């Protein structure tokens, strides 16, 4: 997977850029599957995460200003996506050390980019649900994301305030890859159901 990880992450990120390309100001107040977050807040978070991961890829992940959220705009989101994809495309990035303050630790680049991939597959679904649009990531993206989702610890840390994911939900034996990813990361598949903070 590591040889394709950067390209697959780019596919996931670009699909989110396409989802939001024609948003109107009224759309930003739509509720999302992330409890307490409207679409504008979620997209501001996604923009900040792109900038933060780009900084981490460049050796500046400890700079908390790089991770700060600002009011959302389509232009800023597209620019932040370009920024992170450029940073991830740098030679040797998979073997760099990424400092990720959200986790309070540093990680090898290949693992950090895997975190980013999982986040944007799930957040892409969040955005699509908010907008009532279909969401069908590339099968190769889902194939790479599923083992990563399965490896996320499902322990008491998911109950802590600000946890990235809610506790895992039961996965039916016949679940498709996207549904399994979402359920393992605590997303309720029924539209409009609240889940843990994004």
Q: What does it look like?
A:
With 198 residues, this protein is mainly alpha-helical. It has a domain of 137 residues: Up-down Bundle (Four Helix Bundle (Hemerythrin (Met), subunit A)), CATH 1.20.120. It is 49% helix and 4% strand. The protein is built from six helices and two strands, in the order αααββααα. It has a two-stranded antiparallel ribbon. Strand 1 and strand 2 form a beta hairpin. Helix 1 runs antiparallel to helix 3, helix 2 runs parallel beside helix 3 and helix 2 packs antiparallel against helix 4. The two termini are 26 Å apart.
Indicate the radius of gyration in whole angstroms.
Answer: 16 Å
Unreliable parts: 192-197
Distance between the termini: 26 Å
Biggest pleated-sheet summary: 2 strands, antiparallel
CATH architecture of the domain at 2-138: Up-down Bundle
Number of separate helices = 6
Based on secondary structure, the structural category is mainly alpha
β-strand percent reads under 5%
* Average predicted confidence as pLDDT: 91
CATH class of the domain at 2-138: Mainly Alpha
**CATH H-level name of the domain at 2-138... which superfamily?**
dinb family like domain
Compressed to H and E, one letter per element, the order equals HHHEEHHH
Strands of the biggest beta sheet: in what spatial order? 1-2
What is the tally of beta strands? 2
CATH topology description of the domain at 2-138: Four Helix Bundle (Hemerythrin (Met), subunit A)
